[in-house]
Amino acid sequence: MSPTLPSISSLPARRTLLSATTATALLGVFAFTPFAHGAVTQSSHSVATPAAGTAAAAPGSALLPEQKLILKSAKQVDLHHGTVRLPLHRGVAGGKTVWYVLTESSDVGLAADLDVNYAAKLSNLGIGCPACVQNVTQTSRPDLKFGEATVHFTGAPDFSPTRILVPGPTTLPATTVQPGGVGGPGYSPFIRIQGSPVVYNAPIVATGDGPFDVVHHSNTGDRVLAIHPAGPAGPDQFTQATVDLLVVRGFDAGQPILYISTEASDPLAAVLERATYVPALNHASFLGGDDALGSGRERIFPFLNGQSGPTNPNAQGLIHLVKDGHATEDANLGNTALLAALAHGGDARNIQGDFPTITDPRHSLSYSPLWDAQLGQWTDKAIREGRNTLQTDENQILNLAATRPDLLTGPGGAAYGSVGFVINCPVIAFTDKQPSQDLVNLVPNAQG
After folding, report:
1. DSSP 343
2. I want to staple 36 with a disulfide (CB 3.0 to 4.6 A). Which of 27, 183, 305, 335 is the partner?
């Protein structure tokens, strides 16, 4: 039998978790820098749609071809609305219902069995950080004929705070920042089922039994644009609920890719990524580790101050996201201006490192969804000379940082490298050619 998700017509308002003064104080996480850094048609954008499974394309949608999906459990990617539809699984935390998605496994066989991404590095996340991997249990009905067991989580996110981003006089640093979701005690998206050594990436994206707020996200993650209850099921049959999540557009090895952001360890990163703030993940093994022994992380390359402009092909970076990507607004299917802006280059356009489709197994098997941020800042010289152009490849960035510190540095002129926060960004798909190898080789002194 399938779990029931009721349709809704009225929704609670979100609450303010922090005062503006306190929220501003959260920027202390970035104190070392000068910067704080679809789908089925709905009759009302505040209701969960009753469709289930792999739905037909809605009017105006453009579905990504299935062969371009990396996360094989994805039901569809709607390029028009910028959403991916994933199976939605029921769990329990503190006696209350939660809903999660499953995106990675540290075991290659179980990853294939579940149609999720293989990420061996997840096995290392708990080294020196027991809180980074949540220990869970499973129960199932004794008369279950076919279906899923219920996962019992230790902790869950609180989605009730109001997501707030008030840009500063120069966009960033921001005046006020408040994440819209905050991990509760014991919460991590990375779980280990009692009795098994395998680590899974299982972010919770909604809480409760409905109604579900997919407009202001008082009980859903800030990227949840629709929840589809499971379809009718006969006796002892199982059908699956699904969720539509707003994707992020980026690059890897020179090719455009799609991923989702679900958690971040820094409050500003959580706001910009529309992710749940989980500070404990800052201690995941280990800062700057990348491909070193014991590391559970891979690298992601955001820029702070690339070019901006809604029609500028070289636009890139966090300031661009705030200026041109409607970052101060709630994401929902009714905010068509936001969806259109993101579809036409309004994302930060970050660059990911090792990727599941890279030909060299050293760079495909070292994939991890937990990305160690290498935040780059273009120098005044680079901006003045127009060198702050769109970047799409990890090696090109590392070479530039190694050979031209007069053009690219870390924040505030610091050495280029890890800046102290991570983002949980499971890979979904590529949209043009499959990323297969970096565009250039690394120069001898590049940190790759």
Report:
1. I
2. 27
